[in-house]
Amino acid sequence: MYHQDHADHHATRPTATFTVAFRHVCFLLLTCGLLPGSAIAAEPTAGVDIPTVLKQSKEYRYRFRDGDAEAAIANVALLEKATASETGSADLWNAMGLAYVYVAARATLPGGSRGDAVIALQKGMPALNRALQINPDHAEALSLRAGMRALVGMQMNSPQLVPLALADMNRAVALAPESVEVRLTRAFGAPAMPDELRNRMNEAADLDFLIEKAEGNRAGEFMTLLRADLHFENGELELARQLYERIDATGAASAASVARSRLTQLPQGRDKVMKDIQAFRAVAGTRCSMCHGPITTSASGP
């Protein structure tokens, strides 16, 4: 279920260098045109099989996340052709916005060019804006743009963007409460926002939804870690302990190691645990390999 997907926002297997670079990618994306124009009427279809194109685009995203860098280029080519023939599909333009973000992310990998990232992003935000021009209620396009705004606002000293981002995240969830993608954006973005903007009930609801959708897989274990951390932050220490112990006992090795660390830290006091929780939240959603990849139970070792 989670393949709707961390990669839709963070694009590849991570390194610390990539995480920093991607934040700059997000900044460039926003500088290429932040606000959508007024709604426009959809144009008649030119015979594009939209569901098939969207399915192929998703496959390209999976391939890129799994290490095929050239899949990002193929994805853009697919969607450029499709949007040239069918200009009135908000879904295609949203997929195009994602595709250009992937090309920009590809440019941050070893051997990539910052110039290529700029060129890609000069096309990426207008594609998202076009999706919102066609359909101002397109939850996924709204959510993706909100995620970018939040990153820029918090990382690039643009605090005025943060409440706008949160408002769009909330609206996207209201428009599509069953969408994993929009819930992921808010689940990862909201806890990092200034405390006065946070709504912990919404954060809990997002994580509970994502845990249920994950159906016990590795991604769900990391969502459960985030849920346990929120319990701890809210002073619900026994609930936090129960979740940490469950993941330590039955989770994948990577998730279990974090849970075990939390259990060790609990006697050391709130400040120590919160410091590690905040560090964990800072990379949640940017390190796709945390949630995806071969699953090894904690009993089997790393």
If you had to describe this structure to a student in words, what would you say it looks like?
With 302 residues, the chain is an all-alpha fold. The protein has two domains: 7-136, no CATH class; 216-300, no CATH class. The chain contains 15 helices and no strands. The chain has helices at residues 7-10, 16-31, 50-65, 70-85, 90-107, 114-134, 139-155, 161-175, 180-189, 200-214, 218-233, 237-250, 253-265, 270-283, 288-291. Helix 4 runs antiparallel to helix 5, helix 8 (161-175) runs antiparallel to helix 9 and helix 11 (218-233) runs antiparallel to helix 14. The longest helix has 21 residues, at 114-134. It starts with 6 loop residues before the first helix and ends in an 11-residue tail after the last helix. The relative contact order is 0.11. Mean pLDDT is 81; it is low at 6-20, 31-45 and 293-302.
